[in-house]
Amino acid sequence: MTTIVLDTLTKRFGDNLAVNAASFTLETGSFTALLGPSGCGKTTILRLIAGFEQPSAGSIHFNGRQVGSPGAMVPPERRSLGIVFQSYALWPHMDVASNVAYPLQARGLGRAAIDERVGAALEMVSLAGFGQRSVDGLSGGQRQRVALARCLVTGTDIILLDEPLANLDVHLRAEMLDVFARLHEKTGATIVFVTHDQSEALALADRVIVLDRGVVQQSGRPEQLYNEPANAMVAGFVGRGMLVSALVSDGRVTLADRPVLVRGQVQGSKAALLLRPENLTLADAGIPAAVVAARYSGAGYDTILQLANGEQVLLTARERLEPGRPVHFAIEDAWIVPG
């Protein structure tokens, strides 16, 4: 198994700084999600780990062995890793078994060994018996499993997943989340998963690294990033919380002149509070607001409220509230976002 270390890793494309001095360690057997908006550098980091790009500065190590730096590169085929692309990258003229077997044929393995490994890989992704089928006749989720089986067939220690669910519908995405979770449990491989979808990252990974404009914003367990974001970018990108301005006096935090119990460090005379919908409830007395809009979500009505200072919060109400209606709400939990 493999531990991956990135040390002040930097990548430039001309004047564009795609990755800026990223440093973190991916422990053996970990499942890490690289999360962030388009253009944040997450796919570039994946390509640097894979060996498709060479660092402009810094280095990459696998189990203490340097595999990438500005002066030296270990090619992808010598890094003992597999990668699954968003586009699947399957050959339409080959059947399922031939697609999965291709990496082994390129290595010159015998037919018996190839058949055994292909069968085991297809069984691992729940495609046993699909070997002779044409890939053109498969669903999107099945094609994704074929691509995953091809990645697994070589017995790789590292699995890189580049937006693997982006082309699937909601139901297939949920199905593939279960496949990835079982795969991690069975193989014990070090998995790096690139996504812009925070729900995928929070559901799958045991560690999430949030990036923005090439810079690591925060790294930690999903629960930590959700409950204790390190800055406003993470607070706004992870979850559906909203930031509002509060006042601080003698260590007490108030919002609209009402005291608020908070978590986090109180500093200065002002604080940015992260309020999550699940921690807000309508109340007979509390913080005054006016209804802006309500949208049915199945579990209730996602309702936007506006405070007297113009800032807005989101909560889930049991009934549809008409725009303009005055209400009050209570806060069960609030996090002070570091400045």
Automatic annotation (TrEMBL):
Domain ABC transporter: 4-238
SUPFAM superfamilies, per database record: MOP-like, P-loop containing nucleoside triphosphate hydrolases
Keywords from the named record: ATP-binding, Nucleotide-binding, Plasmid, Transport
InterPro entries according to UniProt: AAA+_ATPase, ABC_SmlMolc_Importer, ABC_transporter-like_ATP-bd, ABC_transporter-like_CS, Mo/tungstate-bd_C_term_dom, P-loop_NTPase, Transp-assoc_OB_typ2
Gene Ontology molecular function: ATP binding
Protein origin, superkingdom: Bacteria
Protein family membership: Belongs to the ABC transporter superfamily.
Stated name of the protein: ABC transporter ATP-binding protein
